[in-house]
Design brief:
Distance between the termini: 35 Å
Pfam families: HTH_AsnC-type, TRASH_HVO_1752_C
Radius of gyration: 21 Å
GO molecular function, one term: sequence-specific DNA binding
Order of helices and strands: HHHEHEEHEEEH
Helix content: 25-40%
Structural class: alpha+beta
Number of helices: 6
Strand content: 15-25%
Number of domains: 3
Keywords: DNA-binding, Transcription, Transcription regulation
InterPro entries: ArsR-like_HTH (IPR011991), AsnC-type_HTH_dom (IPR000485), HTH-Siroheme_Decarb (IPR050684), TRASH_HVO_1752 (IPR056526), Tscrpt_reg_AsnC-like (IPR019888), WH-like_DNA-bd_sf (IPR036388), WH_DNA-bd_sf (IPR036390)
CATH architecture of the largest domain: 2-Layer Sandwich
Protein name: HTH-type transcriptional regulator LysM
Number of strands: 6
CATH class of the largest domain: Alpha Beta
């Protein structure tokens, strides 16, 4: 299970993802190999998805910085968010509970709407609002009250102290109990045999 030391490691990595494991180890009272093992575990659990670079785009002259709010038709939010994630120039994509998608981007051309419609079906968008940004600041932080909350891949209950981890086809899966693990494995094996 994940613990307070893992949270401390995450806080240190959010401050500087290139921080040496030896320095992290000194701060959390672990050896560098132990820190490496914990970071690998956090990656396996999907808590750390990737290490990235934080650019100061104001010094790159790369497109026009914009904040775009898309009001979308019901049911289209996830598809639009997925379509815009990874699109050239898009830095952040947020989906709201109210059915909007908010995009922070550096638009490569002045006609932001036609640029977005290269990836998004215009029929799924009710309204577009484009605001020119004069500055941005993005800070990833882990709050002092943060705690881990892994969910069971079968029933979506929280994985507690009785939880079970199992690697299936190379992916680490979390289960709230051995019963969920067994049922998941049975279903997985049945689907796999039907696919053959």
């Amino acid at each position: 299970m994940l613990d307070e030391i893992d949270l401390r490691i995450l806080r240190l990595l959010t401050e500087d993802a290139r921080r040496p494991y030896s320095e992290i180890g000194e701060r959390v009272d672990l050896s560098p190999p132990a820190v490496s093992d914990r970071v690998s575990k956090l990656q396996d659990h999907g808590i750390i998805r990737r290490f990235t670079l934080d650019l100061d785009r104001s010094q790159l002259r790369e497109g026009t910085p914009v904040l775009v709010t898309l009001s979308v038709v019901p049911g289209a939010t996830d598809g639009i968010r997925d379509a815009l994630s990874g699109f050239d120039g898009v830095e952040h994509v947020f989906a709201t509970a109210g059915g909007r998608v908010v995009v922070n981007a550096h638009a490569p051309r002045p006609d932001v709407q036609s640029w977005l419609f290269e990836r998004v079906d215009p029929e799924t968008v009710r309204e577009i609002e484009v605001d020119l940004l004069t500055g941005t600041d993005w800070t990833a932080r882990i709050g002092g009250e943060a705690a881990f909350s892994l969910s069971c891949v079968l029933c979506d209950n929280e994985v507690g102290p009785d939880g079970v981890s199992r690697r299936i086809d190379g992916d680490l899966k979390q289960f709230c109990c051995p019963s969920c693990e067994q049922l998941y494995v049975e279903q997985y094996e049945e689907l796999a045999s039907d696919a053959d």
